[in-house]
Amino acid sequence: MLLYIHIPFCDSKCSYCAFNSYVDKFALREAYMNALLIQLQSELLRFNAGKDNPIETVFIGGGTPSTVDPSLYRPIFEMIDPYLAPHCEITSEANPNSATRTWMEGMFELGINRLSFGVQSFNNEKLKTLGRAHHTQHALEAIRTASAIGYKHLSIDLIYGVKGDTKPLLKADIDQAFSLPIDHISLYALTIEEETAFEKTPEMADEKLELTRWLFREITDRGFEQYEISNFGTYRSIHNIGYWEHKPYIGLGAGAVGFLENRRYYPGTDVGYYIQHPCEFTTEEIEPFALLSEKLFLGFRSCVGVDAALLSKKQKDQADLLCREGILKYDNGRYFNADFLLADEIALRVEGF
């Protein structure tokens, strides 16, 4: 079982961001964190958390978790402490400009052992284009400070496929990244979402497949394994892999999503409403064919692969054909895809039989 905690507060709204986040609701932080406790208590019962069903990983995302003081997280960690698996991976996202030394030290004391920094680029002009509130020096200082504090695992997000991206610009980003004490990179192509600043300028997304393939090779050639279409590292995030393995997960907070067996649970997205009704959900029942489809798409875009036992005879025949064509590999009862950029096409081809 995984635990995701959504923090909807942000110090600025990035031009590409479609997540449930707000820059004008800071006065609600304490009330919101108290509401998380109420929902958490209910979810621990729903998910039957206990010694035989522990919380394997925790991920605090947003929004911007570093806009909330560590003291407000403490009651949550006190509540989940009896349910945490040994050596539990506990990650928090952080923005370089708000992740102060004091904040990082406070989170480290609570048990956070992994930080994921929303760097996006080390190029100041590109940061302005993306609407980021930090500059390059903020990122460099925050990552180095986190390492000095003692965080064992550090990750950064980078964005590519932005209008104006060039091979020299992206190489400079990768050069800078590998000069830092990180063991993981999440690499995302810019996508244009509705109700974002970039919605009116869709030309800002300008991914070139040849440049994408070069970028992936540039990272893997330096020793970071690509274990999912967007994730590379000498360390694999256990939380990420848990999603791809379809493990159950608690979704805590306004705009989060929970998953248990064949149902998804959606708390309300409005922060004020959530504070008043933290245990009110919209429930979605997922049909077996839809669950299979998700397992195919997630498995073929990651190191998890697809269990052959899930497939019909015709689907197995198609997967075996792709193995003979050198597109898939079969090992110990699972099919694996070596080219994650083809993941969607492969999933559709197998699913269609």
Overview of the structural elements:
Strand 7 and strand 8 form a beta hairpin. 39% of the residues are buried. The protein has two domains: 243 residues, TIM Barrel, CATH 3.20.20.70; 65 residues, no CATH class. The protein is built from twelve helices and 15 strands. With 353 residues, it is of the alpha/beta class. It has a nine-stranded mixed sheet with strand order 7-8-6-5-4-3-2-1-9, sandwiched between helices. A three-stranded antiparallel sheet has the order 10-11-12, with no helix packed on it. It starts with a strand and ends with a helix. Its cofactor is [4Fe-4S] cluster. Keywords: 4Fe-4S, Chaperone, Cytoplasm, Heme, Iron, Iron-sulfur, Metal-binding, S-adenosyl-L-methionine.
How would the blueprint of this fold be written?
Elements: E1 2-7, H1 29-46, E2 55-62, H2 70-80, E3 84-94, H3 101-110, E4 114-120, H4 124-130, H5 136-149, E5 153-160, H6 167-177, E6 184-189, H7 209-220, E7 225-228, E8 231-233, H8 238-244, E9 249-252, E10 258-260, E11 263-267, H9 271-276, E12 281-285, H10 288-300, E13 306-307, H11 313-324, E14 328-331, E15 334-337, H12 343-351
Parallel strand pairs: 1-2, 1-9, 2-3, 3-4, 4-5, 5-6
Antiparallel strand pairs: 6-8, 7-8, 10-11, 11-12, 13-15, 14-15
Helix pairs in contact: 1-2, 2-3, 3-5, 6-7, 10-12
